[in-house]
Every structure is written in C-alpha cells, then in structure tokens.
Amino acid sequence: MGSAAEYDFSISNEMLLELCKRQDQEALRVLFRRHEKPVYNLLYRMLSNHEDAEEALADVFVKVWRAAGSFKGDSKFTTWLFKIATNTARDFLRSRMIRREISLEDGSISEGQMARSAAARAVDPEDCVVKDDEVARIAAALGALSEDDRLLITLYHFQGMDYQEISEITGVPVNNLKVKLFRARQRLKKLCAEPDEGGVEDELRGSASESSGLRNGACEWS
Amino acid sequence: MGRASGPEARVIRDHLKTCKKCEALLREEMAFAARLSAVPMVEPANDVWALVRAKTKPRRLSISAWLGRTRSVDALAKRLAAAVAVIGVAAVTLYSVTLNQPDTGQEPVATSGNSVVSVKWSDDPLGGHREVLVECIDKM
C-alpha cells in the first residue's frame, strides 16, 4: 500500500477498513466520502431532522473506526455499515423519546407543544420548500410513519437495497420482510393520499402496534 | 417491486392474466413505487468529516495500549513470555560479560573529584537488585 495520500476510489471498502484497524485516518476519510450521502439519507429519513442526522452521521463513522476490528467479512461492508447506521438512528430516536418523557414529567413542556414539535420534525421546512409538492407530501407522510416502517421504506425504495440485504440489516426473515414492506407501503400510500383526515391516526396506530409486536417477537431488529 | 424468478414468476404472470383485482393492485403498487423514486436524496449541509476526524485522532501507542490491543489471553501470555525471555537473555548476557572481565587481582579504583571511591567486584552482577528485577518481572 502506498502513502495515505494515494488512497483512491479503486481501493475496496474492506481494504480501507483493514487500514482503519491500523489507525489510518486517511482510509476512514475515503470511506466517509464514499458512503456519507447514502448513510446521511437514511439517517435523515429516520430522524427527520438535519441537525440530528449530521450528528448521527459523525457517530456512525466514529463507530466504524472503533469497530473496524470486529468486521468479520460475513456480510457486505455496506450491509455492516447500514446496520451500524440503523442502530445509531434507533439510539437517537430512543434518546429523543427519553428526553421527551423527562420533559413531560418535569412539566417543562406540555403535550400540545410536544405534538407540535413532532409534527414540525416530521415535515422539515426544507422539504416543504421543495418545488414538487408531491415530494413534500411523501416526505411528510414518511415522517409520520413508525420508525420500523420508515426504515423498510427507506432501505428498499430510497437506498435501493434488495430483500436479502435488508433482511441482514434488520434481522427480519425475507418472507416476513416482503409482507412488512407491503404493509408499510400501504400505510404510506394512505398517509400520502389523505394527510389531513382522521384515518391517518388509525394508520399510525396500526403501524405502531405492528412494530411493537415485532420487537416483542423472535425477530427483534438488531 | 420484488422480482420473482423462474416457476414462481410464471405462476404469478398466469394469475395476473386472470385476476383483475391483483393486476390492479400490482399496477397501483408500481405507480406508487415510481412516485417514491421521485423523492430526491438529501445531503448534509455541513462538512461532517471535520467532526469525525476530531473524534478519531489516532492514539499514540503506549505499553498499556499495546497490551490492551492483545485481545485473547493466549496472545497476551505469549507477549508477556516474550518480554520475560528478552529480559532474561539480557541478564544472562550481562552476567557472562561480567565474568569474562580480566581479573587483575586488584580491586578497581574509581576516582570521583577529589574523593577516592573504592568499588568492590562481586559475583552478583545485579548488585543486590535481583529481588527488585524479579518483582518487576512478576508484575508485568
């Protein structure tokens, strides 16, 4: 291997990861530049907030740096990376939930304020100013889905991953995954079609109960 | 949507020819997937690399880090054994070099400034530091 400055995009992800194990920061930089956009996209779709998504993006690559030695090569590098990204997004959502609970217990904010801020997060202003109203509507509906539904839709439709990869990332068996993805898409479709009607709440309830059932079951997402 | 292959695809195609409901559902699904594909990729507004770089500064390799990197107990034991062996070889070499010194029959005399210091040769090349050395090796 030549000097760090010689690393280019012809070097495989696995080789770069091997160099990361040896504390080669330049290798991490190349990995970062190569994957920052798709990883950010996933994080943004999951967190619905640019600030959190950027912070989570940094966390993901810090974890890659620290966990480089644990990559066994059983799966593709991108599958491993997206698994880290998914777990990081979940951690962020969990800590956001805890903060919210603490704020509600303190009485520092009301339920109404909380609901308004959740809606504001689901529809990021940047999405609203998108020329295409259709895109803004889909983005808003996506933000209103449960995190599991959002993850499946994002990985399959926005990241272009196949069932096998998504199955490895989420830990959901492929056949189960197809059904879950179909249902998630149905819910999203309904949210896109009638964003201001009462049916949306029912959809969200259905989505949440299915997701919680998933977590309690054998195929908890890792 | 997901791609069926081989016989599965044939069965589905045959079914779609006869079932208008499923055909309509498929069309609807495909149309919605096309709508989703219109959603653009979002990119970070700031350069996050600076943050990553700051958090991943390579550490200097200290002895504790060197030992810490050794993940398995076997590997750690091997490294400790190697370290003890190196110290042992050094001690034996020092001892044999000392033995090969020509014996003049006189006690060597070293001068330091105005005072005269007499140094006695001893059979113990570690000069009474043996216990300390053994203790150090034990603690490693």
How many β strands of chain A by DSSP? 0
CATH superfamily of the largest domain in chain A: RNA polymerase sigma factor, region 2, helix turn helix motif
Helix content of chain B: 55-70%
Given as residue ranges, the uncertain stretches of chain B (5+ residues, pLDDT < 50) are none
Number of domains of chain A: 2
The average pLDDT value of chain A, as a whole number, equals 79
User: Number of DSSP strands of chain B?
Assistant: 2
Question: How are the strands ordered across the major sheet of chain B?
Answer: 1-2
The helix count of chain B comes to 6
Radius of gyration of chain A: 19 Å
Question: Structural class of the helices, strands and pairings of chain A?
Answer: mainly alpha
Could you please say which CATH topology of the largest domain in chain A applies here? Rna Polymerase Sigma Factor, Chain: A
User: What is the CA–CA distance across the termini of chain A?
Assistant: 35 Å
Order of helices and strands of chain B: HHHHHEEH
Shape of chain B: elongated
Helical fraction of chain A: over 70%
β-strand percent of chain A reads: under 5%
Strand content of chain B: 5-15%
Walkthrough of the structure:
- The complex is a heterodimer of chains A (222) and B (140).
- With 222 residues, chain A is mainly α.
- Chain A is built from eleven helices and no strands.
- In chain A, helix 1 (13-21) crosses helix 2 (25-47), helix 3 crosses helix 4 and helix 4 (77-106) crosses helix 9.
- Chain A starts with 12 loop residues before the first helix and ends in a 6-residue tail after the last helix.
- The relative contact order of chain A is 0.09.
- Mean pLDDT of chain A is 79; it is low at 127-131 and 212-222.
- Chain B has 140 residues and is mostly helical.
- Among the domains of chain B are: 7-40, no CATH class; 71-101 and 109-139.
- Chain B contains six helices and two strands, in the order H-H-H-H-H-E-E-H.
- In chain B, strands 1-2 form a two-stranded antiparallel sheet.
- In chain B, helix 1 crosses helix 2.
- Chain B starts with 5 loop residues before the first helix and ends with a helix.
